[in-house]
Write a structure and sequence with these properties.
It is a single chain. A hairpin with a 5-residue loop joins strand 1 (about 10-20) and strand 2 (about 25-35). This protein has a five-stranded antiparallel beta sheet, with no helix packed on it. It has no helices and five strands. The chain has one domain. The protein has strands spanning about 10-20, 25-35, 45-55, 60-65, 75-80.
Length: about 90
């Protein structure tokens, strides 16, 4: 048997969120995967989101990046959720 091969991976994650009122907040996530082996590709990723809920229960999401990507995606997404009938989750 030969010498062993280093096989290890580290995941470091930092998430910060803050309420900006009764129906909105702001969140930022920094994710870093390093090392060899494991199942995730190494990389550094930054993502941010601002969700806003309106009085009619409709929601607006403004996001930057993707929290599951191996590198920061330089993209902004705007999503509007229009609820008809009961509140969301019903």
């Amino acid at each position: 048997m030969g010498p062993g091969v280093a096989d290890g991976q580290q995941l470091r994650r930092l998430s910060i969120s803050r309420g900006i009122g009764m129906d909105s907040s702001f969140g930022v996530q920094l994710r870093d995967v390093s090392g060899t082996g494991g199942f995730a590709a190494p990389g550094l990723n930054l993502a941010a989101i601002v969700p806003i809920r309106f009085s009619n229960l409709n929601e607006l999401y403004l996001t930057y990046g993707s929290p599951a990507s191996t590198a920061t995606l330089d993209r902004f997404l705007l999503k509007y959720v229009f609820n008809i009938g009961s509140g969301s989750g019903v």
